[in-house]
Amino acid sequence: MDSPTPLQPNRTDLILQTQIVLHCRLRSEQPESFQPNLASDYVRPLKPFRLAPPHGNLGQRGKKKMDPARTPLGKLLLDEITPVVMVLSTPLVEEACLKNGLSLVEMLSPFCVFNNIDVPVRTASDQPYRIQKFKLRLFYASDIRHPNLEVAKERLKQVITRAGEKDDLYSEPPQTSNLLSSSESEIQPSWFEFFNKELVRTMSFSDHEAFDHPVACLLVVSSKDEQPINRFVDLFNTNKLPSLLNDGAMDPKILKHYLLVHDYQDSDQEKATKILADMRSTFGLHDCRLLCINSSDHELIERQDNPWAPYKSGDLPSQCLGCFLNVDDYNEIKDLLQDLSSKHIIPYMEQKIRALNQEVSATRKGFRNQIKNLWWRKGKEDVTDSPAGPMYTFSSIESQIRVLGDYAFMLRDYELALSNYRLISTDYKLDKAWKRYAGIQEMMGLTFFMLDQSRKEAEYCMENAFNTYLKIGSSGQQNATRCGLWWVEMLKARDQHKDAAVVYFRICDEEPLHSAVMLEQGSYCYLLSKPPMLRKFGFHLVLSGDQYKKSDQIKHAIRTYRTAVSVFEGTTWGHIKDHVHFHIGEWYAILGMYELAVKHMLEVLACTHQSKTMQELFLKDFLETVQKTGKTFEVLKLQLPKLNISSLKVAFEDHRTYASPAAASVRESLWRSLEEDMIPSLPTARTNWLELQSKLVSKYRESNVCVVGEAVKVDIEFKNPLQIPISISSVSLICDLSAISDELNSDACSSTVGSQNDDDSSNLTTDRDMSSENFSFSSSEVDFSLGGGDTTLVQLMVAPKVEGILQISGVRWKLSGSVVGLHKFDSNMKNKIMKGRRKAKHSPCDNLKFIVIKSLPKLEGSVHSLPEKAYAGDLRHLMLELRNPSEFTVQNLKLKISHPRFLNIGSHGNLKTEFLSCLEKKMASERSVVHANSNNLSQTVFLFPKETLIQGEMPLLWPLWLRAAVPGHISLYISVYYEMGDISSVMRYRTLRMHYNLQVLPSLDVSFQVSPCPSRLQEFLVRMDVINRTSSESFHVHQLSAVGHQWEISLLQPVDTIFPSESLMAGQALTCFFRLKSYRKPLTSTDKVSTLSPLLGSDVRLRPEGSNEPLFDISCSPLADFHHCERLHQKMSHQGDPNAVDFILISQPLKDNITPGIADPPHLFSHHACHCSTSSTSPISWLVDGPRTLFHDFSASFREINLKMVIYNSSEAVASICIKTFDSPSTSGHTSEGTADLSSGDQTGWHDASVVNNIKVTSDLLGARVGKSLSLESVPPFIWSGASSTRVQLEPMSATEIPLQICVFSPGIYDLSNYVLQWSLPSSVDSGNQEGKSQHSGTCQGYPYYLSVLQSV
Amino acid sequence: MATTACFIIVSRNDIPIYEAEVGSATKREDAAQLHQFILHAALDIVQDLAWTTSAMFLKAIDRFNDLVVSVYVTAGHTRFMLLHDSRNDDGIKSFFQEVHELYIKILLNPLYLPGSRITSSHFDTKVRGLARKYL
Q1: At the topology level of CATH, where does A1180-1351 sit?
Q2: ipTM
Q3: For A880, which of A64, A930, A958, A1117 could close a Cys bridge (C-beta 3.0–4.6 Å)?
């Protein structure tokens, strides 16, 4: 504490040192010229060795050199901690001054700041130095008291409010990047500094610190006053003096200076001079002065930079201030104050320091005094622990040390100040005078700062002071704030912005307004710290904004939030974003700036992460705000509801028209392939257009085409991201329709911008359009409401009414009836337009651009009574209706159906006839019609008769036949082509596309197995398996027909034994056998079986005997047609086999389970089984013919028996056949081979795997047969006579006879099966066939042929 | 169990990819955004501190009134941030380590795009379970 080395005033040292540093640097460049001047100006020959310390240690540590006096805090301290002069004046003085619009203190204040006063001072230990800068603070005696807190608060509030008024809330908020690049003074609002100063001033004139105690007293009396001398005495009446002087906190014996003010406008100077002489004689020569003012007589003095302006806070124009004070007065005031400070106050303070220092040294310094003091303090251990601590009067040594310290501080003798502060600090601590202790710590911190010494200690002192102030409770809060502000400034001066921000945060107290300002300042500290802490910046701005809001400073709140918005821009922290935007919006709404409010609130609308209540709150507030604006807002990219752009689908009709939306959603390629051979090829179509409107078409070849009066449909999906329902109304498309002439002239590049709806007609349409049509197009409006999280697909339409270019640019909707949301379909989005490949390569923008052409006829079509569900095999009569609503005719109609197997075109003739009756068997003469129709089938496109025109009200009806061919889901596509009757139209033809879905349920499974009859050539056994696969339906099996004139089919058993119950119940299976006979002549087999030959055949009635229902004619139109399709479809299984047989099973549903009330249309089911192979194993078949029983007398001779083998070649090639006979029974190797062949060959005749067990039966049968032949081994042998091998060539479809002969030697039963037929076909014939299905060559085991030879008697 | 605890995983791009209020205190309406604000601001501190140490667990790095922010930085610079009012350093450390393991499992999922939001409900239940266990 007591430093052994004498502490020198080092202000001069400091200057000196910097100069030397500068000097040295300069000298290296300019060796000679500088030194003398610098030295003579600043460096007095002091002790040369004192140059470096006390700052040397700092320099050595390499820290940044800093002049504390130049920092903001240094300036603040030099400004604020300066001697106070108490002013006591008479009313007349004030009156004289008020002529200038100023009070006395205000008039004098500008001259209290001295920048170069240059007063020599000596320290307590006689070290001389000079004071350059000096300042006096003048206060009226009445102001020297602790300021009223409430008043102070009110004033601070006003400061803030006024600052708030100036803010321009409409301007763009600052950008973060700008904030970062600008300096501190640019970022922070300028009123912060002012506010801080005001806040510090509210703490002034406290009794625990001495620097606010008046050093001198200025007594002012006017020359007009009566008895001026007495007035002077009266003025210093103790009653009027501040409490500080009265209650003993400070010494009432202070320096007094007497001033006589004389107003020139009142009288001459003589009287004043007389009074001055009196004064001098009374109060002393040097302490009295005369001040003459208002010298300028009735003429106002205008000043450019009025010195009083900064000191006057009122609203008076600054020109009026000091208007009667001319240059003389000005100089006189200046002289007065300069004299006062340099000749009176400074010497007085110097003197006082010296005196006090001596006293302190005498009582407190030295070892003895310290011990004594310590002991004495210990004795006062049980002092009351009041927050203010014990009362110290001015005469107490503690107060004197404090005064000494403060005076030393004010005269910049910081070393002395520090030593005294240190001395007193421990005393106060021991006395538990916490407030004083804190004050001392505060001053110590500041002194350390001013000395630029030991930063750590300075900070420690400040923190200690701050905490101690806080500890003493509410009374210390204000002081803590001041202490904190100084501390912050100290940290800021040392670039410790981060720490400063923390301190700002700690300064916050209960007062929300102060907290708000502090937090805001703190936030700027975060911004200024290196590296900038933007998130903290934003967070503290938000905190500050909340505090501003609490204290009703909405403008400030908005200002802070606006800055925060720029910080949090683009953040993905949802709650933060919502909070900021929602509150700023709310506050704008409070201020009535609804547009801005709405703008911010829009940001929070789509807050999916918020809870339901928050979403409700957001939406409610938003809608309220919007309502308050009284306008309907148009908001681009409104977040509510969300538009699913990828769901955008555009459906329009150019030459392709659709009967239903379902048809429109079918892939274009499907239609394209369907219509391939129906529509004229593209180039020719285009030439047709070019003839007419070549210009238009060539220009907009890429664009889509739509027709006047026909709607373009846009499907788009809306999604509600919130959990609460929202209502959407008036959803419509934003479109633009500009006339063609316009577009052509302006070269199409002018994309017509502007949201034009049907309400406001286009500004780009030409006048002609305007006059002729009010609205150039009409668009649909859709209303709907979306529940929480719902998604809705909306179809919007726009129908142009005039020709031109139609551009769909976006969609608009109304949210809750108040906000209009717009969404532009911009070019970068991917919209899915289902129309063809031609469009795919253009930008999506073009896809929403349409050329509108003149209105055209458009067919509407539908298929009546098409069921959605049908059982397989169901045959129905349908009606196609085509309608043309326009007055123009269409002609040249064509129709194509995607699945002729399911849907067939009837003839116009059976439009009228009864459904079933037309199918019934009729006389042969009627068949010609049917044949003509079946000829139509050869073409895949059905041409309507040439004379068919559709016009006006008359619809065209055309019969169709539906047959549900196979179970499953089937999409049926029907396309109708038609040409315009009006040749001048741009489009020559159009197509109508219809699409239907059909679900086919399984009904009857029919399978056939045909096996050749072993005993007869050309006869076959047919086994039919029928299973009812339905779950509930029962069927009558009506008839079975074998198709083809060469076949005749007949029952093996009577019907009644097959169908005891007459019907087939659900799930029931049935097997029955038929005999099938081929009438084909072997020699006529060369004529080809034409696929187009009329379907003749033989039928078997499967109804019980009693029923006389007619048989159905399978050669009749629908049945025959469908059979043909079935044939084509089932072709792959067995191609080109002339021996294949087709069966048609016709059944009817049981009528019982149909309610009698409903007139159900008659149903007919037909099941077609085609290409049932008759030649199961090989292309050849043979029959051994001969006697069965013979009588012979073996005693005479052996018997030769002649047999005949008829071989039939059923293939279409020449077969070479080799007959081999064996005398011994065939080896097992042969038989097994044959068995395998047989079983594999058998399968070709079967369709359904469900009857697999039948194959097994067959093979068992074969096996048994082979076994039988083996078992006959013991039979007496016979021998084949003649060649053991015969080879024949057999023409296709022909038969030949080969004689065979055997010799038997004894009676017995002979099995003549021990021969094989080896056949082979030329391979070229079979090359086209399916592999593995037919053989090129094979071996057939002989049939058993039993011959009984008996001994003749 | 802590009365207030807000756990957030912040991706390396400063985007929150997982958020959970795991405290036992009854939820206040404005708590969510205050917690977000505090944690968001604490990222500034993490940014400074993360490179000064090789430890993943940075301990308590920031505070706001009585709420403390503890941070754990993974090698991929994903930050686990916990806002809490309890002083249980060991528990928090274990919590972070176990969550890190869970997070790595999430990362191993080939269908998870690193840096995207963690929507796995399994992860959520596990994290809440860990919070009950350690905090």
Answers
A1: Immunoglobulin-like (2.60.40)
A2: 0.94
A3: A958
